[in-house]
Amino acid sequence: MKLHRFILSLNLKKDLIISKDNELINQIKNVLRLKTGHFVILSDGFENEAKASIKSFSKNEIEFKIEERFENKDEPTKNIKLYCAILKKENFELVIQKATEIGVKAIIPIRSAHTVKQNIKLDRLNKIAKEASEQSGRSVIPDIYEPLSFAEALEDSKTNEANFIFDTDAKEKFYSDKNNIGIFIGPEGGWTEKEIGEAQKQNIKIVSLGKLTLRAETAAIVSSFIALN
Fold first, then answer.
1. Which of 121, 128, 154, 215 has its CA 20 to 30 A from that of 53?
2. 3-state secondary structure of 102
3. Global confidence as pTM
4. Where would I find the Ribosomal RNA small subunit methyltransferase E PUA-like domain in this sequence (predicted)?
5. Is the pLDDT of residue 106 over 70?
């Protein structure tokens, strides 16, 4: 049976671990209805994990006993940064969830010329990413940046080995064998000619995902999967 996984800011080197995280206690006790003696997987967010048993409950804390320590070897070796224009709430949350499940290391919201929604709820997006990491078996939660302008995103991308911007008019299909990749996904209204030109000046490749026109959230998910596989 697959064990429930929890990513926590805890020192897994200790044999007994106490957490006073009320949200965690509620999830384990009232949502999942786990009992004393049940096993879970604990992760410290840095690929270190442990199989632990629930030793005791109280109203304000939960105690785990470490049974076995190991390293999570399922994290992707490629480092993918997804620069995605801010989309409508439910669409952007879908991108966060699925990009996390796929294995993206960082998600950078962008305010582009055609971006309609300008702000994000970072706390909610981080919660979605955490839950998606736990559900998918990851031990690392991707970094979600505060929104950047398109120019700031271009500057940030200079640290990547290769960068790609997706455009429906592009002739070249997306492919990369690099390990540190930046992927730029535009808003519902697409990129402006000026933005495409600015990307080209930085030697960012203009690429396509095929002949069909994909929704922005679909393009973000598909391109992330291709980049990692």
1. 128
2. helix
3. 0.90
4. 28-67
5. yes
